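2024-03-11 09:14:02 INFO worker-7 job=invfold-0412 stage=load source=structure_tokens
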């Protein structure tokens, strides 16, 4: 190794050691890297659910028959419903208004006689539509339970079910339809955005505020070495947080990892480079810790949370917002995470999204090279 390369190595080693020492002295950095992922995963894994379970449903049975008893029993055995019985529709409607129940199932007096007649409504279902997502889930659950019960009853009676088409449902990749199985993998992208963008958004701004960057520029240390000295420690922190998140997802929440760990680590590196690049660019431009922190939250964390497909389906968004999501790096990584965890190594999905992340990383680091100060002003 030549003297110049040895000196560069020693300078870079010193800068990395200085940054690790700064991280060790700043508990907030370690908290964001390791404590915050644990908190968010516990919160979303246990506290946030998009599944509608134990939904209170009101029953109004105008005439009790063996068929009504059989039908209500099918609901009582379901984990999705909690049955509440009312004497009449007026009482059930009051319960909906006070949010005691979220739906009413009314079995008319002629329920048993109208069961297998075409174009004859045997039941009436009224759903509280204040929460539109839950209302859709309840409607789907009731329709599914109704169809299944009718099919079972027809088989017992030895009669044909008078439906033009009988749908046979198969759910791939998440057969239990558990929201945590796609929320937890997607959350890893949000966590890495916080670790990568928010922490690095503060580092260069901190150097500007303290006046230490001018001192470093006056030394033989090059700006490239300064930037590498900032990036490498936070890259290691980010990957450590990612490994912790993957371990919690698999071993604590039981999310299946059907793909390869090395694919997650490789694509995670690409995404972390994007997040680090965004944070470092914000830090260089803003030169103020408060402004850098606010800018990082607005331009990285909130888009990653809202526009990445982590919770909200991108295809249901307006066309203009869908176009905007292509500028969000988390969109690509969320797709990769959910695919690798739930479906496996599907290269037609992984490769295009990984290429998009690579392009974004190149663009951000090109902008950093252009905006980074080369000399004292």
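2024-03-11 09:14:09 INFO worker-7 stage=emit residues=377
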């Amino acid at each position: 190794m030549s003297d110049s390369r040895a000196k560069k190595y020693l300078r870079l080693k010193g800068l990395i050691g200085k940054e690790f020492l700064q991280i060790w002295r700043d508990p907030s950095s370690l908290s964001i890297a390791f404590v915050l992922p644990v908190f968010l995963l516990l919160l979303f894994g246990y506290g946030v659910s998009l599944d509608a379970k134990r939904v209170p449903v009101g029953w109004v049975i105008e005439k009790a028959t063996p068929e009504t008893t059989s039908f209500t029993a099918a609901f009582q055995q379901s984990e999705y419903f909690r049955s509440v019985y009312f004497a009449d529709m007026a009482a059930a409607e009051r319960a909906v208004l006070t949010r005691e129940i979220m739906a009413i199932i009314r079995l008319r007096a002629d329920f048993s006689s109208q069961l297998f007649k075409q174009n004859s409504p045997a039941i009436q279902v009224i759903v509280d539509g204040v929460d539109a997502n839950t209302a859709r889930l309840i409607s789907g659950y009731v329709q599914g339970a109704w169809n299944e019960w009718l099919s079972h009853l027809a088989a017992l009676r030895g009669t044909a079910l008078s439906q033009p088409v009988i749908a046979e449902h198969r759910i791939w990749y998440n057969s239990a339809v558990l929201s945590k199985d796609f929320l937890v993998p997607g959350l890893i992208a949000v966590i890495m955005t916080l670790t990568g963008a928010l922490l690095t958004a503060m580092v260069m701004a901190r150097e500007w505020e303290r006046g230490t960057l001018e001192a470093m520029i006056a030394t033989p240390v090059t700006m490239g070495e300064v930037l590498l000295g900032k990036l490498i420690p936070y890259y290691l922190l980010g990957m450590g947080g990612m490994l912790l998140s993957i371990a919690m997802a698999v071993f604590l929440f039981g999310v299946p990892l059907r793909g390869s760990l090395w694919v997650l680590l490789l694509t995670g590196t690409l995404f972390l480079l994007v997040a680090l690049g965004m944070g470092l660019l914000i830090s260089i431009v803003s030169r103020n810790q408060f402004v850098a922190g606010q800018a990082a939250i607005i331009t990285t964390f909130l888009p990653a949370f809202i526009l990445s497909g982590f919770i909200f389906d991108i295809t249901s968004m307006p066309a203009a917002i869908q176009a905007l999501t292509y500028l969000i790096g988390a969109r690509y990584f969320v797709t990769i995470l959910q695919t690798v965890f739930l479906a496996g190594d599907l290269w037609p999905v992984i490769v295009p999204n990984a290429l998009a992340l690579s392009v974004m990383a190149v663009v951000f680091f090109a902008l950093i090279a252009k905006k980074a100060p080369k000399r004292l002003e």
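2024-03-11 09:14:09 INFO worker-7 stage=report msg="The chain is about 65% helix and 5% strand."
2024-03-11 09:14:10 INFO worker-7 job finished
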